[in-house]
Protein backbone atom coordinates (compact mmCIF):
# COMPACT_ATOMS: atom_id res chain seq x y z
CA UNK A 1 0.00 0.00 0.00
CA UNK A 2 1.34 3.42 -0.92
CA UNK A 3 1.74 6.06 1.75
CA UNK A 4 -0.33 9.23 1.67
CA UNK A 5 2.80 11.21 0.92
CA UNK A 6 5.24 10.06 -1.72
CA UNK A 7 8.90 10.29 -2.56
CA UNK A 8 8.31 13.42 -4.61
CA UNK A 9 7.23 15.26 -1.47
CA UNK A 10 10.40 14.58 0.51
CA UNK A 11 12.43 17.44 -0.91
CA UNK A 12 9.72 19.90 0.04
CA UNK A 13 9.52 18.49 3.54
CA UNK A 14 13.28 18.77 3.95
CA UNK A 15 13.43 22.40 2.95
CA UNK A 16 11.17 23.22 5.91
CA UNK A 17 14.04 22.26 8.20
CA UNK A 18 16.64 24.99 8.14
CA UNK A 19 19.73 25.76 10.16
CA UNK A 20 21.62 22.52 9.60
CA UNK A 21 23.40 23.26 6.34
CA UNK A 22 26.62 21.76 7.73
CA UNK A 23 25.09 18.33 7.60
CA UNK A 24 23.18 18.75 4.37
CA UNK A 25 25.37 16.36 2.32
CA UNK A 26 24.93 13.74 5.05
CA UNK A 27 21.18 14.22 4.98
CA UNK A 28 20.69 13.86 1.26
CA UNK A 29 23.10 10.95 0.86
CA UNK A 30 20.74 8.76 2.86
CA UNK A 31 17.47 9.91 1.33
CA UNK A 32 16.95 7.15 -1.23
CA UNK A 33 18.10 4.39 1.11
CA UNK A 34 15.67 5.64 3.75
CA UNK A 35 12.82 5.83 1.27
CA UNK A 36 13.35 2.34 -0.09
CA UNK A 37 13.57 0.89 3.41
CA UNK A 38 10.38 2.54 4.62
CA UNK A 39 8.50 2.13 1.33
CA UNK A 40 9.46 -1.41 0.39
CA UNK A 41 11.37 -3.28 3.10
CA UNK A 42 10.61 -2.45 6.71
CA UNK A 43 7.58 -3.89 8.48
CA UNK A 44 6.70 -0.89 10.60
CA UNK A 45 3.35 0.67 11.32
CA UNK A 46 2.92 4.22 12.62
CA UNK A 47 -0.25 3.10 14.41
CA UNK A 48 1.79 0.59 16.43
CA UNK A 49 5.28 2.10 16.82
CA UNK A 50 5.99 -0.12 19.84
CA UNK A 51 4.88 -3.44 18.32
CA UNK A 52 7.44 -5.97 19.64
CA UNK A 53 7.39 -7.75 16.28
CA UNK A 54 8.16 -4.64 14.22
CA UNK A 55 11.35 -4.41 12.23
CA UNK A 56 13.92 -2.13 13.86
CA UNK A 57 15.63 0.54 11.83
CA UNK A 58 18.55 2.13 13.66
CA UNK A 59 20.15 5.25 12.23
CA UNK A 60 23.64 5.05 13.66
CA UNK A 61 24.91 7.96 11.62
CA UNK A 62 22.73 10.52 13.37
CA UNK A 63 24.11 13.44 11.40
CA UNK A 64 21.74 15.16 9.02
CA UNK A 65 18.49 13.58 10.18
CA UNK A 66 16.33 15.78 7.94
CA UNK A 67 15.87 12.95 5.47
CA UNK A 68 14.85 10.64 8.30
CA UNK A 69 12.35 13.13 9.69
CA UNK A 70 10.96 13.79 6.22
CA UNK A 71 10.46 10.08 5.60
CA UNK A 72 8.86 9.63 9.03
CA UNK A 73 6.42 12.42 8.15
CA UNK A 74 5.70 10.85 4.78
CA UNK A 75 5.06 7.48 6.41
CA UNK A 76 2.76 8.91 9.06
CA UNK A 77 4.96 8.66 12.16
CA UNK A 78 5.31 12.42 12.57
CA UNK A 79 3.08 15.41 12.07
CA UNK A 80 4.55 17.71 9.45
CA UNK A 81 4.12 20.85 11.55
CA UNK A 82 6.94 19.58 13.78
CA UNK A 83 9.39 20.25 10.96
CA UNK A 84 8.98 24.00 11.18
CA UNK A 85 10.49 24.18 14.68
CA UNK A 86 13.44 21.97 13.71
CA UNK A 87 16.17 22.10 16.39
CA UNK A 88 14.38 24.78 18.36
CA UNK A 89 14.49 24.64 22.15
CA UNK A 90 10.94 23.31 22.29
CA UNK A 91 11.31 21.01 19.30
CA UNK A 92 11.44 17.25 19.55
CA UNK A 93 13.45 17.15 16.34
CA UNK A 94 17.13 18.00 16.78
CA UNK A 95 20.21 17.93 14.60
CA UNK A 96 20.70 14.47 16.07
CA UNK A 97 17.62 12.35 16.82
CA UNK A 98 16.46 11.35 20.31
CA UNK A 99 14.47 8.13 20.46
CA UNK A 100 12.73 9.20 23.66
CA UNK A 101 11.29 12.25 21.87
CA UNK A 102 10.43 11.01 18.36
CA UNK A 103 8.02 8.15 17.64
CA UNK A 104 9.49 5.78 15.08
CA UNK A 105 13.08 6.63 15.95
CA UNK A 106 14.63 3.47 17.41
CA UNK A 107 17.91 4.88 18.77
CA UNK A 108 19.25 8.21 19.89
CA UNK A 109 22.38 8.84 17.85
CA UNK A 110 24.88 11.46 16.87
CA UNK A 111 28.16 10.26 18.32
CA UNK A 112 29.50 7.93 15.65
CA UNK A 113 30.11 4.24 16.09
CA UNK A 114 27.32 3.27 18.48
CA UNK A 115 24.54 1.96 16.24
CA UNK A 116 26.13 -1.27 15.05
CA UNK A 117 26.80 -2.40 18.61
CA UNK A 118 23.29 -1.49 19.66
CA UNK A 119 21.94 -3.34 16.62
CA UNK A 120 23.92 -6.45 17.56
CA UNK A 121 22.22 -6.37 20.96
CA UNK A 122 18.75 -5.77 19.54
CA UNK A 123 19.12 -8.46 16.87
CA UNK A 124 20.37 -10.88 19.55
CA UNK A 125 17.43 -10.05 21.79
CA UNK A 126 14.89 -10.54 19.00
CA UNK A 127 16.50 -13.86 18.10
CA UNK A 128 16.36 -15.00 21.73
CA UNK A 129 12.66 -14.08 21.79
CA UNK A 130 12.05 -16.13 18.65
CA UNK A 131 10.87 -13.13 16.62
CA UNK A 132 11.69 -12.92 12.94
CA UNK A 133 11.77 -9.14 12.98
CA UNK A 134 14.65 -7.61 11.07
CA UNK A 135 17.16 -5.19 12.60
CA UNK A 136 18.58 -2.79 10.02
CA UNK A 137 21.27 -0.28 10.98
CA UNK A 138 22.42 2.61 8.79
CA UNK A 139 26.04 3.72 9.03
CA UNK A 140 28.21 6.00 6.94
CA UNK A 141 31.51 5.21 5.28
CA UNK A 142 33.30 7.83 7.39
CA UNK A 143 31.59 6.53 10.49
CA UNK A 144 33.39 3.23 9.95
CA UNK A 145 36.57 5.02 11.07
CA UNK A 146 35.34 4.41 14.62
CA UNK A 147 36.89 1.15 15.84
CA UNK A 148 33.80 0.24 17.83
CA UNK A 149 32.09 -0.70 14.55
CA UNK A 150 34.59 -3.44 13.94
CA UNK A 151 33.97 -5.03 17.32
CA UNK A 152 30.33 -5.33 16.24
CA UNK A 153 31.07 -6.44 12.67
CA UNK A 154 33.41 -9.17 13.87
CA UNK A 155 31.10 -10.50 16.55
CA UNK A 156 27.94 -10.38 14.39
CA UNK A 157 29.66 -12.39 11.69
CA UNK A 158 30.92 -15.06 14.09
CA UNK A 159 27.54 -15.26 15.80
CA UNK A 160 25.71 -15.68 12.50
CA UNK A 161 23.25 -12.93 13.35
CA UNK A 162 21.01 -13.42 10.35
CA UNK A 163 18.41 -10.99 11.71
CA UNK A 164 20.87 -8.14 11.35
CA UNK A 165 21.44 -6.01 8.27
CA UNK A 166 23.78 -3.05 7.95
CA UNK A 167 23.51 -0.50 5.19
CA UNK A 168 26.63 1.56 4.67
CA UNK A 169 25.92 4.75 2.76
CA UNK A 170 29.21 5.37 0.98
CA UNK A 171 29.63 8.95 -0.19
CA UNK A 172 33.41 8.75 -0.07
CA UNK A 173 33.68 10.96 2.98
CA UNK A 174 36.13 8.87 5.05
CA UNK A 175 39.33 10.91 5.31
CA UNK A 176 41.58 7.97 4.57
CA UNK A 177 39.23 5.93 2.45
CA UNK A 178 38.65 2.17 2.35
CA UNK A 179 41.10 0.69 -0.18
CA UNK A 180 39.61 -2.40 -1.74
CA UNK A 181 36.11 -1.35 -0.82
CA UNK A 182 33.85 -1.62 2.18
CA UNK A 183 31.91 -4.76 1.23
CA UNK A 184 35.03 -6.90 1.39
CA UNK A 185 35.60 -5.92 5.00
CA UNK A 186 32.20 -7.25 5.99
CA UNK A 187 32.59 -10.35 3.82
CA UNK A 188 35.90 -11.21 5.50
CA UNK A 189 34.08 -11.27 8.83
CA UNK A 190 31.44 -13.68 7.61
CA UNK A 191 28.71 -11.34 6.39
CA UNK A 192 26.81 -11.55 3.15
CA UNK A 193 27.92 -8.32 1.49
CA UNK A 194 26.53 -6.67 -1.62
CA UNK A 195 27.11 -3.37 -3.38
CA UNK A 196 24.23 -1.29 -4.67
CA UNK A 197 23.55 2.00 -6.39
CA UNK A 198 22.42 4.18 -3.51
CA UNK A 199 20.18 6.24 -5.80
CA UNK A 200 18.52 3.35 -7.66
CA UNK A 201 15.45 2.23 -5.76
CA UNK A 202 15.10 -1.11 -7.54
CA UNK A 203 18.78 -1.90 -7.07
CA UNK A 204 18.55 -1.04 -3.36
CA UNK A 205 15.46 -3.22 -2.98
CA UNK A 206 17.28 -6.10 -4.68
CA UNK A 207 20.22 -5.65 -2.30
CA UNK A 208 18.02 -5.57 0.81
CA UNK A 209 16.25 -8.73 -0.34
CA UNK A 210 19.51 -10.68 -0.70
CA UNK A 211 19.06 -14.05 0.99
CA UNK A 212 21.27 -14.40 4.07
CA UNK A 213 19.75 -17.23 6.10
CA UNK A 214 22.79 -17.94 8.28
CA UNK A 215 24.68 -14.67 8.46
CA UNK A 216 24.17 -10.92 8.68
CA UNK A 217 23.81 -8.83 5.54
CA UNK A 218 25.76 -5.72 4.59
CA UNK A 219 24.50 -3.48 1.80
CA UNK A 220 27.01 -0.90 0.64
CA UNK A 221 24.96 1.87 -0.99
CA UNK A 222 27.16 3.98 -3.22
CA UNK A 223 26.18 7.58 -3.80
CA UNK A 224 27.97 10.51 -5.41
CA UNK A 225 31.00 11.69 -3.39
CA UNK A 226 30.32 14.26 -0.70
CA UNK A 227 30.52 17.77 -2.12
CA UNK A 228 29.82 16.83 -5.71
CA UNK A 229 26.62 17.98 -7.46
CA UNK A 230 23.87 15.41 -7.88
CA UNK B 1 43.42 -12.17 38.96
CA UNK B 2 44.68 -15.47 40.15
CA UNK B 3 42.83 -18.72 39.82
CA UNK B 4 43.72 -19.56 43.39
CA UNK B 5 41.66 -16.65 44.65
CA UNK B 6 38.65 -18.18 42.99
CA UNK B 7 39.31 -21.59 44.37
CA UNK B 8 39.32 -20.44 47.99
CA UNK B 9 37.27 -22.79 50.10
CA UNK B 10 34.15 -20.93 51.12
CA UNK B 11 32.35 -23.80 52.78
CA UNK B 12 34.00 -23.71 56.21
CA UNK B 13 31.57 -24.46 59.01
CA UNK B 14 31.15 -21.59 61.41
CA UNK B 15 33.52 -22.02 64.35
CA UNK B 16 35.22 -19.76 66.85
CA UNK B 17 38.21 -19.68 64.52
CA UNK B 18 38.27 -16.74 62.12
CA UNK B 19 37.06 -18.00 58.77
CA UNK B 20 37.82 -16.71 55.34
CA UNK B 21 34.64 -15.02 54.15
CA UNK B 22 33.20 -16.37 50.89
CA UNK B 23 34.60 -14.79 47.77
CA UNK B 24 32.15 -12.32 46.18
CA UNK B 25 33.21 -12.99 42.63
CA UNK B 26 33.05 -16.73 43.06
CA UNK B 27 29.55 -16.33 44.48
CA UNK B 28 28.52 -14.30 41.43
CA UNK B 29 29.80 -16.89 38.99
CA UNK B 30 28.03 -19.65 40.88
CA UNK B 31 24.81 -17.66 41.05
CA UNK B 32 24.76 -16.44 37.46
CA UNK B 33 23.19 -19.54 35.83
CA UNK B 34 20.42 -19.49 38.41
CA UNK B 35 19.80 -15.78 37.82
CA UNK B 36 19.59 -16.34 34.07
CA UNK B 37 17.29 -19.32 34.52
CA UNK B 38 15.02 -17.39 36.88
CA UNK B 39 14.04 -14.67 34.38
CA UNK B 40 13.39 -15.24 30.68
CA UNK B 41 14.49 -11.67 30.00
CA UNK B 42 17.92 -12.14 31.58
CA UNK B 43 21.00 -12.34 29.36
CA UNK B 44 24.57 -12.51 30.64
CA UNK B 45 27.11 -10.56 28.60
CA UNK B 46 30.78 -11.34 29.06
CA UNK B 47 33.97 -10.15 27.40
CA UNK B 48 36.09 -13.24 28.06
CA UNK B 49 36.63 -12.33 31.75
CA UNK B 50 34.70 -14.90 33.78
CA UNK B 51 33.70 -16.99 30.77
CA UNK B 52 35.85 -19.86 31.97
CA UNK B 53 34.34 -19.81 35.45
CA UNK B 54 30.64 -19.79 34.68
CA UNK B 55 29.19 -23.27 34.42
CA UNK B 56 26.37 -22.79 31.94
CA UNK B 57 23.76 -25.55 31.57
CA UNK B 58 23.15 -26.35 27.89
CA UNK B 59 19.60 -25.05 28.05
CA UNK B 60 20.83 -21.58 29.00
CA UNK B 61 23.80 -21.40 26.67
CA UNK B 62 22.18 -18.98 24.24
CA UNK B 63 21.54 -16.51 27.06
CA UNK B 64 25.17 -16.36 28.16
CA UNK B 65 26.89 -14.36 25.44
CA UNK B 66 30.64 -13.96 25.35
CA UNK B 67 31.54 -11.25 22.84
CA UNK B 68 35.27 -11.79 23.24
CA UNK B 69 37.62 -9.00 24.26
CA UNK B 70 35.36 -6.25 22.94
CA UNK B 71 34.26 -4.00 25.76
CA UNK B 72 32.69 -1.28 23.62
CA UNK B 73 30.48 -3.92 22.05
CA UNK B 74 29.86 -5.42 25.49
CA UNK B 75 28.06 -2.29 26.65
CA UNK B 76 26.51 -1.30 23.32
CA UNK B 77 25.04 -4.78 22.93
CA UNK B 78 23.64 -4.49 26.44
CA UNK B 79 21.86 -1.32 25.35
CA UNK B 80 20.49 -3.05 22.26
CA UNK B 81 19.30 -6.03 24.25
CA UNK B 82 17.55 -3.73 26.70
CA UNK B 83 15.90 -1.90 23.80
CA UNK B 84 14.54 -5.29 22.71
CA UNK B 85 13.09 -5.84 26.19
CA UNK B 86 15.81 -8.05 27.65
CA UNK B 87 17.62 -7.59 30.97
CA UNK B 88 21.39 -7.65 30.40
CA UNK B 89 23.77 -8.70 33.17
CA UNK B 90 27.14 -7.34 32.11
CA UNK B 91 30.40 -8.38 33.68
CA UNK B 92 34.11 -7.71 33.43
CA UNK B 93 36.86 -6.04 35.48
CA UNK B 94 36.02 -2.54 36.69
CA UNK B 95 38.32 -0.50 34.39
CA UNK B 96 37.09 -2.40 31.33
CA UNK B 97 33.45 -2.11 32.36
CA UNK B 98 33.35 1.58 33.28
CA UNK B 99 36.41 3.40 31.96
CA UNK B 100 37.05 1.99 28.49
CA UNK B 101 33.36 1.96 27.40
CA UNK B 102 32.39 5.09 29.35
CA UNK B 103 30.73 6.70 26.33
CA UNK B 104 28.77 3.50 25.72
CA UNK B 105 27.48 3.68 29.29
CA UNK B 106 26.52 7.30 28.75
CA UNK B 107 24.91 6.94 25.33
CA UNK B 108 23.94 3.30 24.75
CA UNK B 109 22.31 2.93 28.16
CA UNK B 110 21.64 6.39 29.62
CA UNK B 111 20.84 8.38 26.50
CA UNK B 112 18.73 5.54 25.08
CA UNK B 113 16.74 5.58 28.31
CA UNK B 114 17.39 1.91 29.10
CA UNK B 115 19.14 0.02 31.88
CA UNK B 116 21.37 -2.92 32.64
CA UNK B 117 22.80 -4.73 35.64
CA UNK B 118 26.56 -4.20 35.61
CA UNK B 119 28.71 -6.41 37.80
CA UNK B 120 32.38 -5.54 38.10
CA UNK B 121 35.19 -7.47 39.71
CA UNK B 122 38.65 -6.47 40.80
CA UNK B 123 37.67 -3.58 43.06
CA UNK B 124 40.31 -0.88 43.23
CA UNK B 125 43.40 -3.09 43.38
CA UNK B 126 42.43 -6.68 44.04
CA UNK B 127 44.97 -7.62 41.39
CA UNK B 128 47.69 -5.52 42.98
CA UNK B 129 50.40 -7.34 41.09
CA UNK B 130 48.78 -6.41 37.79
CA UNK B 131 49.36 -2.71 38.32
CA UNK B 132 47.62 0.42 37.12
CA UNK B 133 46.06 -1.03 33.96
CA UNK B 134 43.90 -3.33 36.07
CA UNK B 135 43.10 -0.93 38.91
CA UNK B 136 39.55 0.38 39.16
CA UNK B 137 39.24 3.11 41.82
CA UNK B 138 37.58 5.53 39.39
CA UNK B 139 34.45 3.49 38.67
CA UNK B 140 32.12 5.02 41.26
CA UNK B 141 33.18 8.64 40.64
CA UNK B 142 32.74 8.12 36.89
CA UNK B 143 29.24 6.73 37.39
CA UNK B 144 28.52 9.84 39.47
CA UNK B 145 28.74 11.85 36.25
CA UNK B 146 25.84 9.86 34.79
CA UNK B 147 22.14 9.91 35.60
CA UNK B 148 20.16 7.28 37.40
CA UNK B 149 22.71 4.71 38.53
CA UNK B 150 22.23 2.68 41.67
CA UNK B 151 25.65 1.70 43.00
CA UNK B 152 26.07 -1.23 45.36
CA UNK B 153 29.39 -1.88 47.09
CA UNK B 154 28.77 -5.16 48.92
CA UNK B 155 31.01 -6.02 51.84
CA UNK B 156 30.16 -9.71 51.84
CA UNK B 157 29.14 -12.34 49.29
CA UNK B 158 25.72 -12.73 50.94
CA UNK B 159 25.08 -9.02 50.50
CA UNK B 160 26.21 -9.19 46.88
CA UNK B 161 23.86 -12.09 46.24
CA UNK B 162 20.90 -10.26 47.78
CA UNK B 163 21.67 -7.14 45.73
CA UNK B 164 21.99 -9.11 42.50
CA UNK B 165 18.74 -10.97 43.09
CA UNK B 166 16.92 -7.73 43.88
CA UNK B 167 18.31 -5.86 40.87
CA UNK B 168 17.66 -8.50 38.22
CA UNK B 169 13.91 -8.04 37.71
CA UNK B 170 14.15 -4.28 37.18
CA UNK B 171 14.80 -2.18 34.12
CA UNK B 172 17.03 0.41 35.76
CA UNK B 173 20.77 1.00 35.73
CA UNK B 174 22.49 -0.84 38.55
CA UNK B 175 26.20 -1.30 39.28
CA UNK B 176 27.37 -3.99 41.69
CA UNK B 177 31.02 -3.59 42.63
CA UNK B 178 32.42 -6.94 43.71
CA UNK B 179 35.58 -6.89 45.77
CA UNK B 180 38.19 -9.43 46.75
CA UNK B 181 38.04 -8.00 50.26
CA UNK B 182 35.10 -8.84 52.49
CA UNK B 183 33.95 -8.37 56.06
CA UNK B 184 33.76 -11.48 58.24
CA UNK B 185 29.98 -11.32 58.23
CA UNK B 186 27.22 -9.49 56.36
CA UNK B 187 25.93 -6.24 57.87
CA UNK B 188 23.04 -5.52 55.50
CA UNK B 189 22.40 -5.35 51.79
CA UNK B 190 20.97 -1.84 51.51
CA UNK B 191 19.70 0.34 50.10
CA UNK B 192 19.56 1.93 53.58
CA UNK B 193 22.66 2.22 55.72
CA UNK B 194 22.97 -0.01 58.77
CA UNK B 195 23.78 1.54 62.17
CA UNK B 196 26.71 -0.46 63.52
CA UNK B 197 27.47 1.74 66.54
CA UNK B 198 26.16 4.91 68.16
CA UNK B 199 28.42 7.63 69.55
CA UNK B 200 28.34 11.34 70.35
CA UNK B 201 31.43 12.77 68.73
CA UNK B 202 30.75 12.34 65.02
CA UNK B 203 29.84 9.82 62.35
CA UNK B 204 32.03 7.43 60.40
CA UNK B 205 30.49 5.94 57.25
CA UNK B 206 32.16 2.66 56.34
CA UNK B 207 31.51 1.51 52.78
CA UNK B 208 31.31 -2.16 51.81
CA UNK B 209 34.38 -4.26 52.50
CA UNK B 210 35.98 -1.60 54.72
CA UNK B 211 33.49 -2.08 57.59
CA UNK B 212 35.42 -4.53 59.75
CA UNK B 213 38.63 -2.58 59.64
CA UNK B 214 36.78 0.69 60.26
CA UNK B 215 35.13 -0.79 63.35
CA UNK B 216 38.55 -1.92 64.58
CA UNK B 217 40.04 1.47 63.81
CA UNK B 218 37.48 3.46 65.83
CA UNK B 219 37.50 1.14 68.84
CA UNK B 220 37.33 3.29 71.96
CA UNK B 221 36.33 6.42 70.01
CA UNK B 222 32.92 7.95 70.77
CA UNK B 223 31.58 7.87 67.22
CA UNK B 224 28.59 6.54 65.32
CA UNK B 225 29.51 4.01 62.66
CA UNK B 226 27.16 3.60 59.69
CA UNK B 227 27.54 0.79 57.18
CA UNK B 228 26.84 1.57 53.53
CA UNK B 229 26.50 -1.41 51.18
CA UNK B 230 24.75 0.93 48.73
CA UNK B 231 26.23 4.37 48.02
CA UNK B 232 23.98 5.65 45.20
CA UNK B 233 21.51 6.89 45.91
CA UNK B 234 23.22 7.99 49.12
CA UNK B 235 21.14 7.35 52.23
CA UNK B 236 20.88 10.91 53.51
CA UNK B 237 17.97 10.05 55.82
CA UNK B 238 19.95 7.67 58.02
CA UNK B 239 22.91 10.04 58.14
CA UNK B 240 20.69 12.88 59.34
CA UNK B 241 18.64 10.74 61.70
CA UNK B 242 21.72 9.45 63.52
CA UNK B 243 23.81 12.62 63.41
CA UNK B 244 25.46 13.70 66.68
CA UNK B 245 28.27 16.17 66.13
CA UNK B 246 28.10 17.17 62.46
CA UNK B 247 31.57 15.77 61.77
CA UNK B 248 31.46 13.04 59.14
CA UNK B 249 34.22 10.72 57.96
CA UNK B 250 33.71 8.66 54.79
CA UNK B 251 35.75 5.48 54.46
CA UNK B 252 35.42 4.38 50.82
CA UNK B 253 37.28 1.68 48.89
CA UNK B 254 37.50 3.76 45.69
CA UNK B 255 38.66 7.30 44.93
CA UNK B 256 38.92 9.41 48.11
CA UNK B 257 36.21 12.02 48.48
CA UNK B 258 33.76 10.40 46.08
CA UNK B 259 30.82 10.72 48.47
CA UNK B 260 31.75 14.09 49.95
CA UNK B 261 29.25 15.78 47.65
CA UNK B 262 26.20 13.68 48.63
CA UNK B 263 27.14 14.17 52.29
CA UNK B 264 27.32 17.92 51.71
CA UNK B 265 23.93 17.77 50.01
CA UNK B 266 22.49 15.70 52.86
CA UNK B 267 23.72 18.26 55.40
CA UNK B 268 23.13 21.35 53.26
CA UNK B 269 21.36 23.13 56.08
CA UNK B 270 23.82 22.11 58.81
CA UNK B 271 27.25 23.60 59.44
CA UNK B 272 29.40 20.52 59.16
CA UNK B 273 32.82 19.10 58.44
CA UNK B 274 33.49 16.10 56.25
CA UNK B 275 36.60 14.03 55.60
CA UNK B 276 36.74 11.68 52.64
CA UNK B 277 39.10 8.74 53.01
CA UNK B 278 39.77 6.43 50.11
CA UNK B 279 42.17 5.65 47.30
CA UNK B 280 44.45 8.52 46.28
CA UNK B 281 44.35 9.82 42.75
CA UNK B 282 48.12 9.64 42.29
CA UNK B 283 49.56 6.56 40.64
CA UNK B 284 51.74 4.69 43.10
CA UNK B 285 53.45 2.63 40.38
CA UNK B 286 53.67 -0.21 42.88
CA UNK B 287 52.63 -3.87 42.72
CA UNK B 288 52.61 -6.13 45.79
CA UNK B 289 49.40 -7.12 47.56
CA UNK B 290 46.08 -5.40 48.28
CA UNK B 291 47.26 -5.04 51.89
CA UNK B 292 50.26 -3.06 50.68
CA UNK B 293 47.99 -0.70 48.76
CA UNK B 294 45.55 -0.38 51.67
CA UNK B 295 48.45 0.73 53.85
CA UNK B 296 49.76 3.12 51.20
CA UNK B 297 46.34 4.80 50.88
CA UNK B 298 45.72 4.86 54.63
CA UNK B 299 42.91 2.33 54.34
CA UNK B 300 44.33 -0.17 56.82
CA UNK B 301 43.26 -0.14 60.47
CA UNK B 302 46.17 2.05 61.56
CA UNK B 303 45.67 4.51 58.73
CA UNK B 304 41.94 4.89 59.28
CA UNK B 305 42.45 5.36 63.03
CA UNK B 306 45.15 7.95 62.45
CA UNK B 307 42.94 9.96 60.06
CA UNK B 308 39.77 9.75 62.16
CA UNK B 309 41.57 10.68 65.38
CA UNK B 310 43.27 13.68 63.80
CA UNK B 311 40.01 14.87 62.19
CA UNK B 312 38.02 14.67 65.43
CA UNK B 313 40.69 16.13 67.73
From TrEMBL, chain A:
Annotated PANTHER family: TRANSKETOLASE, TRANSKETOLASE N-TERMINAL SECTION-RELATED
Sequence intervals crossing the membrane: none
Organism: Pseudonocardia tropica
Protein's name according to its UniProt entry: Transketolase
Alphabetical list of Pfam families matching this protein: Transketolase_N
Record-annotated Transketolase N-terminal domain positions: 23-216
Top-level taxon in the UniProt lineage: Bacteria
TrEMBL record, chain B:
Transmembrane portions of the chain: none
Pfam families given in the database record: Transket_pyr
Regions of compositional bias (Polar residues) in chain numbering: 1-18
Positions of the UniProt region annotated as Disordered: 1-24
Domain Transketolase-like pyrimidine-binding: 22-186
Domain of life: Bacteria
Name this polypeptide is given: Transketolase
Source organism per UniProt: Pseudonocardia tropica
